[in-house]
Amino acid sequence: MTANFNVLLFILLSFALTLTAQEFSCPTAPITKDAGLTGVLPAGAKGQVQVPANTTCTYTFQIPKGFALRVDTTADYEVSMENSINFDNIFISPPAVNVVDYAMNTEVPFEIVSKTGDLAFITKYSYIDLSNYKQVIIPTGTHLNTTLDSNKYYTVKASNDNDQVNLQYGSRQSSVADLTLSEVFMFDGNDIFNSKYIGRVPSVYEKQNLFYSTSNTVTLVNLYGNPSSSLFLGNDASVIKTLNNYGVLVMDSDKEYDDWMYLLKGATVVTDSWYTVICKDCTTFSIDYMLFDTDKDYSNANGFVEVQGMTPSHKLQTMLHYQYSSSNNQSFPQIIPAPMATFHLYNSSFHFKLRPGTLQKDFDTSSGATRYVSSPQLWNPDAKSSFDYTFSDFNKNFNFSINLQSLKLENDGDSLNVEVGTADGDNSLDKKYTKTSLENQQIAGIGSYLKLVYTGTKNSTVLLNFEMIDMTETTVSMETTTKESVSSLPLWVLIVMTLFVM
Ligand SMILES: *[C@@H]1O[C@H](CO)[C@@H](O)[C@H](O)[C@H]1NC(C)=O
Ligand SMILES: *[C@@H]1O[C@H](CO)[C@@H](O)[C@H](O)[C@H]1NC(C)=O
Ligand SMILES: *[C@@H]1O[C@H](CO)[C@@H](O)[C@H](O)[C@H]1NC(C)=O
Ligand SMILES: *[C@@H]1O[C@H](CO)[C@@H](O)[C@H](O)[C@H]1NC(C)=O
Ligand SMILES: *[C@@H]1O[C@H](CO)[C@@H](O)[C@H](O)[C@H]1NC(C)=O
Ligand SMILES: *[C@@H]1O[C@H](CO)[C@@H](O)[C@H](O)[C@H]1NC(C)=O
């Protein structure tokens, strides 16, 4: 009985020993798809294999075009500067249980460093054929998330064959970096099969602050499918190259966005900066306030901020112009009837608060404040070309002093109603505009509300601003102005014009 037990113990012990003592060898020849679509590291391993102390081993995988490599790693080791597992510059940290990673490099290293000898691992690998992946074309000026759909790859394409793509990404306000960006692979060209692989997103932007594709396309694929909150935005390179500094900011549809916009490009102060704010899953948002930095280095009377709809690639006209002021808070809130807007800072920086919104109809009045109202498609060509806004405070009496900057209502069915009145139904102003075209006409009415109702065709235009003068107090007029209607002029002309007007 005792003898039998000892034999059993001996067998068990030697079995355990052979398990952990499987010989570790480090092959120097690269691993290829042709040698097998699947395999295991170390070769022949059935479970985790201990790597002897003072071992550095680098396996090299070769990945043919049209394939990706998937590795599933289980590992245990003491994290120290000297023990590590690194695959395609991604550290696989312990304890790892079937941790999945992918790579699309033509040659990718899998490096094991065991200094202390306590590192054990097993990695299963497989080559994945991507030939069934379908292409989705995304035009410049359209954002996309980094949680790209499986079995699809995304090609961002410039609006002109001779142009290139400037691709940017923006992450939501958060203290931690969005690690899922490293799960997106970038190709400089039209597909994932023949185009040049240029790396995981963070590694591409480490090398260059601004990325421009070589041709008119850049392609993205995400094999991991983890949820990500960052967004990509492609712009036509010909537009972005004229800008001193350009960035993308992302806000959520359920959170206020409170931050600063600066004239900074890395550590360098530049004269101009442009930022596109993407309000994710919004149709509209509003500027709650924009407070200019009044610090002596930034309080420059010639400084300003301008806002245009959507992205620079849309080449829409400038809709708002705020000249530097230390007291412009009364100009807000200002509605932006588009899911994106591009801010241009010149010789100024400011603290802003943006609020996501659904289409708002009712607004408070505010003494001495100027508001800007326009047909939504001036902000966003895809917007419904109508609005219905009421500005009111039934406890007060205002002189609504309205400047019809530009009305172009030339199609049947185009109409703009402007009504000023009081709660008891007295209308001091009730105008209906149809089939008309006019510029800079002043009208005014006294009452406790102003109602503006517009329906029109896509190519009709309404651009107006109004001041609310409280009849019980005297107020000073604000320092803001909107740009004239100059829809056909490109952005650079506006900038040059502004510089000369100053
Ligand atoms: C590993 O290398 C270090 C430094 O060279 C040495 O002190 C140590 O004894 C080595 N360990 C083994 C197990 O060879
Ligand atoms: C990201 O985009 C894909 C494809 O457009 C969509 O299916 C998915 O729901 C989006 N994910 C998030 C988190 O918005
Ligand atoms: C900004 O404004 C200040 C003061 O008005 C001026 O001295 C400075 O040259 C301006 N900078 C640029 C880049 O225009
Ligand atoms: C600006 O206006 C907003 C909204 O009315 C207010 O919350 C904020 O405190 C104001 N800021 C300053 C500096 O007046
Ligand atoms: C209201 O404002 C308009 C335009 O500024 C002005 O012409 C008009 O005299 C004002 N009405 C009153 C009663 O103050
Ligand atoms: C504007 O659009 C309407 C209908 O959508 C069309 O009939 C009209 O010709 C267009 N006008 C111009 C100037 O393009």
TrEMBL record:
**Which keywords, in A-to-Z order, does the entry hold?**
Signal
Question: What are the boundaries of the signal sequence?
Answer: 1-21
**One Pfam family per UniProt:** CUB_2
Could you tell me which residue ranges the CUB-like domain spans? 22-130
Q: Which InterPro entries match?
A: CUB-like_dom
Q: Which GO cellular component terms, listed alphabetically, does the Swiss-Prot or TrEMBL entry include?
A: membrane raft
Q: Name one GO biological process term.
A: innate immune response
Which PANTHER family does the UniProt record give?
Answer: CUB-LIKE DOMAIN-CONTAINING PROTEIN, RING-TYPE DOMAIN-CONTAINING PROTEIN-RELATED
User: What is the name of the protein in this document?
Assistant: CUB-like domain-containing protein
Q: What species is given as this protein's source?
A: Caenorhabditis remanei (Caenorhabditis vulgaris)
